[in-house]
């Protein structure tokens, strides 16, 4: 018996996407996906959701084009390499991977990316008691404080947590390399519409509107940005959900130092402050002597920092961290900041309630427009959420007539 190229691609694609997926909303069974004709699909956004969908749909033999507003892939997976010295880097978005995020780990493995522990096991972390008194303890005290404050999703044994060696952006870059001829960067989408025959997407290319026609559209644009896109034909209820999407503020400040002087004092550079701000030493596993200390502020603190001018963000963080790690001002060399509410193509870090609110619209809208992204998943605020929602959409699109 001969096997067609398309059927072969579908089968091999499933080997990647489908093996050992336990969640019911994911591709779990080859028999459910070997359906439907080859389609032209426009994917909007080259973040984790758009990239994995582009990759798997291509494996299945569909004709894919990905429109991305930025000049890089990855969206909220973004590793800062500038303005740091000596090849040091620190993540602006996703960094931590827990051991139960099977999809994230699956694609890390697919591209042979090396993992390493997220946290150092040596030296002490700083935490603060309810009365504000300072404590030095093992890194377990840091993850305990995180779990206690933000929920067990962030807690547990430090050994459960890993990161991609070299920066998290290696993962979207690996996808993008496979899809190089299918991604159009610098192409912000301004209008999406569909009728019984086709879907159309209007996007800007060097400021001029261009239109493409497709059998199906997969929209992974965060709702915080999608509210500025024209969506004729979408129901009032869904438009209202998109309009109300309330993305969370996150602010990070990175301070580069000429050496890692805190280590000589027995400190790892990790802390959980009185204001519930995480402090990381993201360069602890990178070659020295220089280092970076990073603050990771959420709810309340993040908005306060976002409202400051850049120089004030840096000077106030420098002053505060010098209190925890005395000697910082003397060893400070330079800084960077990232406030996600300011990011033109994200307008926030993530959104927690979208999945339930958007309801049936995670299914096909107007017959031809599908939606995916962390905001439409059971794992909002995680790469795993972006991946799982996209695989659900891949299945919908592949099975459609
Ligand atoms: C500060 C922070 C920390 C995080 N920490 C972790 C972590 O430790 N571990 C983890 O697993 N996850 C983490 N996450 C979450 C993870 O990064 C996201 O859930 C995931 O990357 C979202 O992927 P996405 O494809 O849904 O959205 P996005 O990454 O936002 O992708 C959407 C894409 O659409 C593009 N776009 C926007 N508007 C348009 C337009 N009009 N036209 C065309 N393209 C457009 C954007 O540029 C972007 O590339 C973190 C996120 C942030 C912000």
Please, could you describe this protein's structure?
- The N terminus is likely disordered.
- This protein has 13 helices and 20 strands.
- The longest helix is centred in the C-terminal third of the chain and has 17 residues.
- The strands form five sheets. It has a seven-stranded mixed beta sheet with strand order 8-7-16-17-18-15-19, sandwiched between helices. It has a five-stranded parallel beta sheet with strand order 10-2-1-14-20, covered by helices on one side.
- The chain is α/β, with parallel strands linked by helices.
- The chain is elongated.
- α2 packs parallel to α5.
- Helix content is 30%, strand content 23%.
- The structure holds flavin-adenine dinucleotide.
- Flavin-adenine dinucleotide binds next to α2 and α13.
- Flavin-adenine dinucleotide (FAD) binds next to α2 and α13.
